[in-house]
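Wait, can you check?
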Amino acid sequence: MQYDPIKQSLGKVFNHTPWLRILFYRLLELLLLRSWYIRRELEKWAQTAPDNANILDAGSGFGQYVWRLAKTNKRWTITGIDVKSEQIDDCNRFFKKLSIGRQVSFREADLTRFSESEQYHLILSVDVMEHIEEDELVMRNLYDALKPGGVLIISTPSDQGGSDIHEHHSNGSHGFIDEHVRDGYNIHDIGEKLMRAGFSKTKASYTYGKPGSLAWKLSMKLPILMLNKSKLFFILLPIYYILIYPFAYVLNHTDIRMHHQKGTGLMVLAFK
């Protein structure tokens, strides 16, 4: 199933005014369990981060993590890069309207060709690696771009059903999200790849255990499947979320408080 067209449609709905865009960001933070995990890691990192931190969001998408980082500390400089020029143009237009826009910039870049040397204290890579065939090349590029002592934070699906690869569809696709080039990462393999890229230490843990996986199905998978069938479901989305979100919230809250022996997502930290 094509996931990107649905995201683009939702983005357009919330893109009419700055306050709607910010509402969109806040809804993503509430709905997406990965955002809960990312925020937790960013809060930990912020406790010892320098006031003049230079941060890269490698695969910035809608810009929601750039917005969150810019709100956290107005002295940080945040750069968002993405391979999609229309996404970059959209984010630059939006952030120019905000007071935090002075510390933020977006530019188009292909991570397989990305070349910077020791520029960033922190690099964020959320749901990016599973879309790139040459992932080890990208890991090396991001390693080079980090300052000594810098940290790379990766959120990505695991090989335990993170792309719903166990489902086979009549149209020939093998997963819920067709844009993924791999079924998900093995928790040990991704650490080994990062070490080969030059990182001195890695730390990986599972996310999306049983509670989180159920929450994802309720709050993301089912609505997206319905929207793929008919855009008329946009009209029913508010009612749907009013009904199911209390359950999804409890499930997300439970998931992030647990230590998972397995899960469909991975949170990975790599240290230079």
Notes: The two ends are 37 Å apart (CA to CA). Residues 28 and 35 are 8 Å apart (CA to CA). The longest helix spans residues 233-257. The beta strands are 54-58, 77-82, 104-108, 120-126, 146-157, 201-207, 265-271.
